[in-house]
Amino acid sequence: MIDGMGIVARIQQRYPDLRKSEKTVADYLCAHSDSRLEMSITELANTLGVSEATVSRFTRALGYRGYSEMKLALASESSAGRQFVNIPTTMHETDSLIEISQKLYGALSSSIGESQKHLDFEAVQSAVTQVLKAEHVLFLGVGGAASVCEEAAHLLLKSGIQTTVHRDGYTQLVATTTVDETFTVFGISHTGTTDTVARSLALARERGSKTFAITSDRDSAVATAAEHALITWHHGPPQVPLYGDFLEGRICQMYIIYLIYLGVLFQSGGSAKQCLNDTAENLKQHFMR
User: For the SIS domain, which residue ranges apply (predicted)?
Assistant: First the structure.
């Protein structure tokens, strides 16, 4: 469905089918979706190092009749302004719930697709292996990331994996002071700038624990502190600190957690399945008596 969709929503829908040079144009427009496009087709092509034919082909791929029509569409979207930060850039206060549902679906599915495409599957497999080997698993996260940690612990505990979550910086530093090689430690931060998570990962790594970061920035303090980094979807413009994480960032973190969880289930040799059955039976006896 193209009619009525904004330019970023169209890009998200068509992105997997675009050529590499066309994706260069797409990435630029998404990163500058809040600004008017003042450049001519020649100027844009020269700025991005692509041909005018590439830009023209890109506009037609999005369903526009030409470059001028695409510029008008982008101007119309940018003039509406951004009332909220850290939500998908395609959304506006004037959107109906139907429009929001379509745009949200497009944004979330596109971000998961981008995360999947850039995943280091050797690092994912290492995470699964180390979770299964560990005597104890720690998840470290602050604010919104802590809720992802709680979900991870909920899943792994029922699978027979001893898991603990630490939500505040003080406790994170205290807990990682006494870990050793029997621990596997995960730090979650969308921006990768959460200081206590980075410092705790570094400390755990120094003490012999296996460490994994889940973040959108592979060059961030959190990513570089860990032995392995699992990189999620990344939004071009910087996030407004403490305003609330991008919705796409949160769903991508959960995507990686679910991937690790399923790996644990399928590679546990049947022990996880038995634990799930035992847990279900125990809960049944307690709540249905």
Answer: 127-270
Provide the pLDDT for residue 3. 55
User: What confidence category does residue 230 fall into, taking pLDDT thresholds of 50, 70 and 90?
Assistant: very high
Which CATH number is correct for 118-283, 3.40.50.620, 3.30.70.1230, 1.10.60.30, 3.40.50.10490? 3.40.50.10490
pTM of the model: 0.72
Summarised one tens digit per residue, pLDDT across range 66-102 is 998 898 888 766 655 455 656 776 777 788 999 889 8
Among the CATH numbers 2.60.40.1930, 3.40.50.720, 1.20.1250.20, 1.10.10.10, which is that of 7-95? 1.10.10.10
Sequence-separated contacts (24+) of 260-263 with Cβ below 8 Å = 260/124, 260/127, 260/128, 260/131, 260/152, 261/152, 261/155, 261/156, 261/159, 263/124, 263/125, 263/127, 263/128
125 in helix, strand or coil? helix
Q: Which helix (H) or strand (E) is 221 found in, with range? A: helix 221-225
Angle at 232 between CA 145 and CA 189, to 5 degrees: 25
Identify the residue whose tokens are 């999947």: 116
Backbone angles phi, psi at 221, to 5 degrees: -65, -40
What is the rounded CA–CA span in Å between residue 181 and residue 168? Answer: 23
Place of tokens 């049947």: 270
